[in-house]
Design goal:
36% helix; 7 strands; alpha/beta; globular; seven-stranded mixed β-sheet; Rossmann fold
């Protein structure tokens, strides 16, 4: 597994950041997100899942993906032992991080999901969220109103059932990649800045 560690001088915490199913840690979204988090005083450790490292298109099975999450968190704890740890990721990366948290003590203070893939497009359901009830950690969800992977009419009740553990930040007109419509009055960069700042404020509650 490859990884990229990005730490600002005034870092307040470290987020282990997993990529989505179709693009690795070098995807422009991942790089832009890491840069905005750096500006918000959040260090990041981006890493590649084995299938992406081997340039395979189909993701590995969950046991291998969650093992990769555990390995990345272990590395993060070694490279920055002085920083409070958080974990999460984009789409698949976030879901596998939550699955790892449901099955293990990750040693992190909270999870952040940048587009939780609640269900495949046009196949509404909440089966992918069933394990979240076993996650005994604070969780921050960022979700766009145009995201075909998460019907907000389903995700909102899921977060409500998680109670005080969950916070849902809805991004108006954003799709699964957090691209927004011009009618929103914002640019994609504005959205990532907002996401990074919200993440910073949220993590400070648990540092």
């Amino acid at each position: 597994m490859s990884a990229i560690f990005l730490r600002p001088r005034n870092a307040e915490c470290l987020l282990v950041l997993a990529h989505g199913a179709g693009a690795g840690m070098l995807h422009p979204f991942m790089q832009s997100l890491a840069s905005e988090l750096e500006a918000a005083r959040i260090a990041t450790l981006r890493f590649q899942f084995p299938y992406m490292e081997q340039r395979r298109k189909i993701p590995d099975r969950p046991p291998l993906l969650t093992a990769a999450v555990l390995a990345a968190i272990h590395v993060a704890s070694e490279v920055a032992p002085d920083l409070p740890l958080f974990a999460g990721g984009k789409s698949l990366g976030g879901r596998m991080t939550s699955l790892a948290a449901a099955q293990n003590n990750l040693g992190v203070r909270g999870l952040v999901f940048f587009g939780f893939p609640l269900h495949p497009p046009n196949q509404s359901g909440i089966k992918r969220a069933e394990h979240l009830h076993a996650v005994n950690l604070p969780m921050l969800f960022f979700q766009g109103t145009r995201d075909p992977f998460a019907d907000l009419n389903l995700l909102r009740p899921v977060c409500a059932q998680l109670g005080a553990r969950a916070m849902l930040q809805v991004i108006k007109t954003a799709d699964h990649s957090f691209h927004v419509l011009k009618s929103s009055g914002k640019t994609d960069k504005n959205v990532l800045e907002e996401i990074a700042q919200t993440t910073s404020v949220w993590t400070q509650n648990f540092c």
